[in-house]
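ok so i was messing around last nite and threw this chain in just to see what happens. nothing serious, just curious
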Amino acid sequence: MQKDHLNSPWRKTTMALYAPPNEGKIYGTMDIDITTAEEFVRESRAAGKRITMTHLVTAALGRILKNDIPEVNVFIRRGKFVPREDVTVMVAVNMKRGQEMGSIRIHDADKKSVFQIAEEIRTKAATARQGVENETMKNKFVLGSIPWPFRRFTFVLLKWITNTLGFELPFLGLTHSAFGSILLSNIGTHGLNTGMAALFPGAKLPAVIIMGKAEPRPVVRDGEIVIRTIMPFTATIDHRVMDGFHAGVMANRMIYYLQHPDILAVEERPTPGDAPEAPRNE
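result:
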C-alpha cells in the first residue's frame, strides 16, 4: 500500500479539521437480510460446528478490511495515517451476567475461517469470564480506582500522550492496536434492535459496528411479499478515517458475505474476481 494513498490531501485536511472522535463522528444504519446466513448457522450446528451470527460477521469484517478497504485498517500517529500490521477484530462479550462488558481480540481475522474464529472466541471468552482479561481492559479498574477529582485529568493526560504525541504505554495496555482494527458488539443478545455506539477517543478505531436483534419481517422479493430474517446494523465512524465510500463498500460486502456464508467457511478468500461485487445502491 502506497504511503501517498494513505495520507492523501483530504485525509491530511480532516486531521486538521477534526479533533479525535468526539467531533468527527458520523453514523449509519441499515437492515441486512440474514436468512441464508441463519440457515448456514443452523446447518453448521447440526453438523457439530457451533457458530453464531457474531462469528460470521467477525469473519466478514476481517476480510473486508484486508481485501476491500485496507486503507481503513490504520491508526493516526503525529498527523499521519499508519497501516496496522494485521487485521484484528475486537469483539465485545458479556461478563458477570451482562452487568459488565469484556473484549476479545481476534488477530489475523482475515485469514481464519468462521469455525476457527468461533472456537477462538469461545476459548478466550471463557478465560475472560474467569477474570483473566487483556491488559487494556484490566486497566479500566486502575482508572476507576483513581479519586474523582483526578480521574478526568489522568485520562486527558493519557490521551494527550497516546493520541496527540503518538506514544505507546504498553505497561498500561495502551498501544496503537490495543483495541484492534475495528470493534464489533452484538446488542441483539440484549433484545435491542438499534443502538449508536460511543467511539472511545483513546481507542484509535475507525468504526464501531453494532449488530441488532434479528427478527422475521415481510419484505418484497421479485415482486412478492415474503418473510425473511432481517438484522439491523449500525455503525459509528471516525470521519477522519472513513467516509461514505468506505462505509458503502463495507455495507455491500457485508451483504454479500452474509448471502454467501460458505465463503467464510474456508481459511483463504477466493481470488479477487471469483466473488462478484455486491450490488450498490445508486
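not much to say yet. Residues 148-164 form the longest helix (17 residues).
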